[in-house]
Input
Amino acid sequence: EVQLVESGGGVVQPGGSLRLSCAASGFIFDDYTMHWVRQAPGKGLEWVSLITWDGRKTYYGDSVKGRFTISRDNNKNSLDLQMNNLRTEDTALYYCAKDSGYGDYCPGSWGQGTLVTVSS
Amino acid sequence: SHEVTQPPSVSVSPGQTARITCSGDAVPRKFVYWYQQRSGQAPVQVIYEDNKRPSGIPERFSASSSGTMATLTITGTQVEDEADYYCYSTDNSGNYPVFGGGTKLTVL
Output
């Protein structure tokens, strides 16, 4: 059974940094692209970033480009999201997701999320 | 930038057919995926590659795509289907996905 457990969320001031992690199990981690998706309180889903299975390709949504960095450690079955220069609009529940494995990049299995609150 | 648009809400009576649309300029060229998110839960994929159902998703969920519009159809809607539904697609490069704004399905 696929398990994705996010951690690292918390309260941070605007301009601060936070590093999220996702521990993966139940599947061959280095076979899959991984995603971060976020959801602001009461709002819809927003795709944040993805990283290919080998870490060679990374892509970011326009709202986080230049501030967030996605990375992975295939030896530890872990996915990270380094978030710098945080803004109040980055407040959200951040989900880690395993790619579905179809031709397109597409989240399949999801974790339960970790909450990030950016507030002074 | 690539966008897909959904109606904010749809209402249906139990047992009736619910239809949720998703429109976007890239829809004719890129697959559309659909997710269900019940209140307080993580999203679950209910349709992939325009019209395929993942294992474990009930047959009442189906979808189609024509022109710039994709449609999720729930036939014989049940009370448990009340949820937010999101379409998802990518831009022409395939590297920059986007979710639609979500449609709240009310079953009453």
